[in-house]
Structure formats: C-alpha cells, structure tokens
C-alpha cells in the first residue's frame, strides 16, 4: 500500500474561518481537509491531516511523516518564525517537504520575515489563500514522480 501524504497544521489554524477572515478567509480547516482529501484521492494518494497548537506534537508528527509518509506539507503557522526544533525535525526527514502559508508572510509584519522552516523545506508556497494547499500538493506529487 502506498504511503499517504501528510498535511500538518500549526497553532491557531483550528480557528480558520473565524480568525482574522480578512487575512485568512472564511473557509474552515475542515473545508481545507475535505478539499485536500479530494485532491489526494484524484491522484491516488491517501491523506493524513492533522492540526496541533503544541510545538512538540508538531515535531512528533514530522518525525512520523518521515517514516510513514510519502511527502509532507506543513503550515507551521507562528512556529514558522520561531522554531529551531521544527527546522531540525524537517532536516532529519528524507521525504519532500513543502511549506504552506495561506497569507503572504513576506508582505506582513517584520517578525514574519524570517522562516526557519523555509531553510529546511524542499519549497514554499504562500499567499494564495487555501489554494496554497492544493498547489503544495501538486508540488509534492511532482517531486514524487
Ligand atoms: C500563516 C502565516 C503565519 O505568519 C501565521 O503565524 C499563521 C498563519 C499562514 O498560513 O498564512 O498563523 O502560516
């Protein structure tokens, strides 16, 4: 059986749809999950989709993706800009890792201008709303071909 694609979401993304909708839109994380499930199914992949507000749990899930997943998409949310632990976890896995953002951090506050995750990931997609996830899936699947 083919390994699934992992999509991991960091802190506050459980509030998608209610949280700053002018920045993040009105779709919920369940809507994003359903959209990604359809896209994975169309491409013949299973999906493991998770969200946590806890940095260490995200590290555990990255490690799990490294052993049980075909590829990893990660929206690390605020941990993008702070987490050396996530950087190290991504460096330690040997699968394609695509960093995803709904908004465009490069066009926002100064504290969002550094991404530790971008320095470890295979590539990054941001600023395209929830379509960043679909484009990230496409990029991961292309990398797997
Ligand atoms: C985000 C961007 C981050 O800067 C922010 O902390 C988030 C969401 C995005 O998807 O646009 O929580 O990762």
Number of domains: 1
Shape descriptor: globular
The largest sheet has its strands arranged as: 2-1-3-4-5
Helix-strand makeup class: alpha/beta
CATH class placement: Alpha Beta
Mean pLDDT: 97
Distance between the termini: 17 Å
> What's the CATH superfamily, by name?
Dehydroquinase, class II
Number of helices: 5
β-strand percent reads 15-25%
Strand count, sense and barrel status of the largest sheet are: 5 strands, parallel
Instruction: Please provide the count of β strands.
Output: 5
CATH architecture label name: 3-Layer(aba) Sandwich
CATH topology: Rossmann fold
Bound molecules: 1,3,4-trihydroxy-5-OXO-cyclohexanecarboxylic acid
Order of helices and strands: EHHEHEHEEH
Overall radius of gyration: 14 Å
Amount of helix: 25-40%
Unreliable residue stretches:
none
């Amino acid at each position: 059986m083919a390994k699934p694609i992992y999509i991991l979401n960091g802190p506050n993304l459980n509030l998608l749809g209610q949280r700053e909708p002018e920045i993040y839109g009105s779709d919920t994380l369940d809507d994003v999950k359903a959209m990604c499930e359809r896209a994975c199914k169309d491409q013949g992949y299973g999906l493991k989709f998770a969200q946590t507000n806890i940095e260490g749990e995200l590290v555990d899930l990255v490690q799990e993706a490294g052993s049980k997943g075909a590829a990893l998409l990660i929206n690390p949310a605020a941990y993008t800009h702070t987490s050396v632990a996530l950087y190290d976890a991504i460096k330690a896995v040997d699968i394609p890792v695509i960093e995803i953002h709904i908004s465009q951090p490069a066009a926002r506050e100064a504290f969002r201008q550094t991404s530790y995750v971008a320095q470890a990931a295979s590539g990054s997609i941001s600023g395209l709303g929830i379509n960043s996830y679909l484009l990230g899936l496409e990029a991961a699947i292309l990398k797997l071909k």
